[in-house]
């Protein structure tokens, strides 16, 4: 690729390289990048790198490469419910809206049809790595993993563990059944490594299993004990769950686990808090819970669209960042009403501004995130590298740099097929400098949508986006 590249560097900075030459190798990783290559030395630079007869994709003004988005928390079987039942708060929403829909995934053919469109839609939103909760059903969740594998998306897929406090029509028969089926799902997903996917058979597989105790309320101590044992016998196994989302949920959790010091302490007492644990929501954490989460190096999935939509509250993400806790973004479909991380970025910004308004602080701060609006650089970080840290894969993805996997988006801010672009050719044709790129990035994050994502790449493979949609 020859053109503009934007990539996060830290919570407060990103690289904006207007004239970058970036080379993706046969293995799908970035071989090298040369910054600031003037057009007249392009061929010479390629020759110096030993590149003869290579395809160079040249990006016109208004287009740039960005690392793919990482959705650290979503529910695949809830996508058909997007935008419905949003008058409820969490516990009523689960029983009146969510469990009835998830129960339909006992029908494997229904699951297949639905998950095909779910995965396609999530990829086209620019999500290159996704943490999916399936339903509680083993067979349907295997199908979800198969579809993700065939699509070429990077993902973690888990089936919900839930053996109590759920309706009779949607609950696992026992802790033993739950564990047994979880083990079967893990073996199935690990066996996908040897199965060819859409593009190639030679790559290590991109889909990994993840333990998914739905939340403390839905799990008996017996089930959590067995999940903790599975986790301790396999430190590489990821874990995802919900934490401190809603006040009524927290009160019920404390009733169920009276001996635990707090909500985080419940998970910790079963060995489920560790560096590859993803904790979704974390809206109402106590100070001592923050200490514990930081100590265990677990990550938080910030789900602001959902936290607003289910009236759960505003998570103080700035406080978590100041304490060095890993944070990524989650769409939490269908608590959240959009499968796009762009919507999540916009709501993360608004959430931070609400806390800043309440605290009477103005603007961003170079040294502190608590009670401050989050800068663009921080929002970009949370959507990419922060998500990779939460998923414990930041050595592989989350930024565009030599040695990283080419999981990337080709963003087009120009007008597309009759839709206006993100800048007006009459007033502000984008220049080729860094400042122009800063402006384009901010407009894309706040005003862009899936139409502006022309191509989605995972490990160098073109797997989705607006151009893909047009040709498939
Ligand atoms: N807590 C337990 N299950 C769920 C769920 O499906 N969505 C959300 N937002 N919170 C939960
Ligand atoms: Fe959720």
Automatic annotation (TrEMBL):
Its cofactor is Zn(2+). Binds 1 zinc ion per subunit. InterPro entries: Amidohydro-rel, Guanine_deaminase, Metal-dep_hydrolase_composite, Metal_Hydrolase, Metallo-dep_hydrolases. GO terms for molecular function: guanine deaminase activity; zinc ion binding. The keyword Lyase does not apply. Gene3D superfamilies: Metal-dependent hydrolases (3.20.20.140), Urease, subunit C, domain 1 (2.30.40.10). One of its GO terms (cellular component) is cytosol. Residues 64-461 form the Amidohydrolase-related domain. One of its GO terms (biological process) is guanine catabolic process. The keyword Cytoplasm does not apply. Catalyzes the hydrolytic deamination of guanine, producing xanthine and ammonia. Belongs to the metallo-dependent hydrolases superfamily. ATZ/TRZ family. NCBIfam families: guan_deamin. This is Guanine deaminase. It comes from Tricholomella constricta.
């Amino acid at each position: 690729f020859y053109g503009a590249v934007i990539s996060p560097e830290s919570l407060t900075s990103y690289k904006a390289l207007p004239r970058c030459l970036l080379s993706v190798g046969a293995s799908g990783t970035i071989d090298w990048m040369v910054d600031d290559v003037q057009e007249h030395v392009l061929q010479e630079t390629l020759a110096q790198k030993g590149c003869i007869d290579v395809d160079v994709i040249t990006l016109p003004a208004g287009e740039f490469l960005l690392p793919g988005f990482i959705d650290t928390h979503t529910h695949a079987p809830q996508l058909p419910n997007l935008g419905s039942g949003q008058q409820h708060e969490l516990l009523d929403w689960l029983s009146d809206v969510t469990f009835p829909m998830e129960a339909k995934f006992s029908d494997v053919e229904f699951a297949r049809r639905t998950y095909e469109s779910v995965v396609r839609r999530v990829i086209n939103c620019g999500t290159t790595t996704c943490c999916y909760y399936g339903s509680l059903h083993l067979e349907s969740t295997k199908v979800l993993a198969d579809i993700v594998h065939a699509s070429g998306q990077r993902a973690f897929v888990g089936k919900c563990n839930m053996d109590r406090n759920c309706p009779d029509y949607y609950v696992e028969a026992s802790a033993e059944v739950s564990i047994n089926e979880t083990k079967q799902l893990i073996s199935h997903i690990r066996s996908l490594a040897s199965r060819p996917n859409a593009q190639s058979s030679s790559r290590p597989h991109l889909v990994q299993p993840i333990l998914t105790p739905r939340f403390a309320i839905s799990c008996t101590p017996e089930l959590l004990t067995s999940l903790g044992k599975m986790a301790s016998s396999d430190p590489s196994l990821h874990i995802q769950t919900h934490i401190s989302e809603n006040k009524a949920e927290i009160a019920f959790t404390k009733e169920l686990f009276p001996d635990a010091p707090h909500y985080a302490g419940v998970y910790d007492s079963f060995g489920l808090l560790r560096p590859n644990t993803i904790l979704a929501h974390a809206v109402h954490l106590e100070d001592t819970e923050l200490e514990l989460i930081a100590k265990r190096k677990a990550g938080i999935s910030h789900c602001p669209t959902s936290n607003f939509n289910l009236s759960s509250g505003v998570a103080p993400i700035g406080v978590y960042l100041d304490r060095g806790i890993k944070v990524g973004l989650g769409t939490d479909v269908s608590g959240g009403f959009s499968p796009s991380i762009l919507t999540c970025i916009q709501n993360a910004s608004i959430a931070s501004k609400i806390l800043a308004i309440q605290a009477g602080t103005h603007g961003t701060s170079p040294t502190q995130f608590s009670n401050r609006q989050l800068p663009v650089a921080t929002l970009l970080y949370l959507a990419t590298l922060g998500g990779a840290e939460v998923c414990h894969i930041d050595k592989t993805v989350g930024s565009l740099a030599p040695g990283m996997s080419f999981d990337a988006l080709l963003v087009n801010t120009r007008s597309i097929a009759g839709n206006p672009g993100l800048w007006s050719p009459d007033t502000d044709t984008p220049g080729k400098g860094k400042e122009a790129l800063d402006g384009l990035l901010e407009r894309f994050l706040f005003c862009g949508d899936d139409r502006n994502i022309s191509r989605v790449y995972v490990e160098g493979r073109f797997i989705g986006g607006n151009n893909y949609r047009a040709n498939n």
